[in-house]
Amino acid sequence: MKALIIGCGIGGPATAMALQRVGIDAEIFEAYDVTADNVGSFLNVASNGLDALRTLGAHKEVLTAGIPTPRMVMWSGTGKRLGEVANGLALDDGTVSHTIQRSDLYRIVRDEAVRRGITVSYGKRMVAYQETSSSVTARFEDGTEATGDLLIAADGVHSRTRALLDPAAPAPRYSGLYSFGGIVKDADFTGEVGVYNMIFGKRAFFGYTVAASGETWWFANLPRELGDVPADWKATLIEAFSGDDNFAAELIRRSSIDLALPIHDLPPVPTWHRGRVLLTGDAAHATSPSSGQGGSMAIEDALVLAAALRDEADHEAAFACYERQRRERVERVVAWSRKISNSKAAGPVARVFRDLMLPIFLKKSAGDESLAWMYRHHIAL
Fold it and tell me: What positions does the domain FAD-binding occupy (predicted)?
């Protein structure tokens, strides 16, 4: 059996490695003609995602490249400490959630897939596919094509495959937030190493953690109408955090703002598979970064899919088994993440209510097992 995997982000290589473990050949086709080694800011790989990488034997370099970040402390824009919650739950060997630059995570999983003999072809933007009773053929913008037994979509929230599979599929929905991020090494900005500080500012949300190297890794979420692009994002961000009781505005002043990304997620997607074609990762169930679970969900998908293809009688039964095992979990994560994102874009009245109620909520959910459904999820392969 051979699988054509569309997309070489994080989910694509993870899926290829998982399929290889169960004896299925895979080839990855990436739309862009260059790699994404220097693309993106940073992200959280929660303990469940690290557990999934460990199952693939691909977690050790991720731990080396990332920052252990086991705790999150919440603050109001006035400087009031609202509470603390665990950022994931430790694995059985003590491993905690890590924060890593997206480019590093991408490079690690891609390079590991290549090391294991998996081919990655670049400049292959799929424009159509065609199925027969025994195969599926992907056709690319450059006029080439590839044929396999299965076509697995790992092409992200704006998936071309999803639109081809089901033209009536829901479009990505804008969260109301633009995202920014950066890394600054400056002795004026300090904090407890490895602790995420999450600040609900008066006009925007700010988060940061400090690495052992002394670097401050920061991100910001700014409520804004989609497409409302100012002449100067940096000045707009500084203004958004002016008056807050923290160093966000000054940290941004000393940073470069290279990228402003509107945050999207997906409402429930009715059709995940048809025939020999299947959606995975963000193509099926994109979540906002607020959950810190996007990459982890894609890696989990890879393991579940490989196990289903190994254990079920044929690909149709395997795809149905995959959906049964994944849909409820991932849609719960998407909904949970969207609720967090909505709290970041709260208006004046909602902001007051949030700051009053959040300490109570955090105290109730501070127990290690309150989010066990998310962080203690283990998938064997």
Answer: 2-337
Q: Would you list the domain boundaries of the chain?
A: 2-172+264-375
* Architecture of the CATH domain 2-172+264-375: 3-Layer(bba) Sandwich (3.50)
Q: Identify the burial level of 362 via C-beta atoms within 10 angstroms of its C-beta, where 0-12 means exposed, 13-18 middle and 19 or more buried.
A: middle
Alpha carbons 334 and 342: distance in angstroms, whole number = 12
| N-term to C-term CA, the chain | 18
For the chain, the C-alpha Rg in angstroms (whole number) is 21
The pair of structure tokens assigned to 90 is 């430790």
**Structure confidence by residue, pLDDT tens digits, 298-322:** 999 999 999 999 999 999 999 999 9
Distance of CA 219 to the CA centre of its chain: 15
- In this prediction, residues 113-132 reach a mean pLDDT of 98
pLDDT above 70 covers what percent of the chain?
96
CB of 96 closer than 8 Å to CB of 47: yes
Rounded to two decimals, the pTM is: 0.94
On the question of pLDDT at 364 being above 70, the answer is no
- Give the separation between CA 168 and CA 274, rounded to whole angstroms: 14
Measure Cα distances from 74 to 82, 204, 338 in Å. 5, 14, 18
CA–CA distance, 2 with 22 (Å, rounded to integer): 12
Q: Exposure of 325 by Cβ count < 10 A (0-12 exposed, 13-18 middle, 19+ buried)?
A: middle
User: What's the CA gap between 120 and 98, in Å, rounded?
Assistant: 27
What is the pLDDT, as a whole number, of residue 300? 98
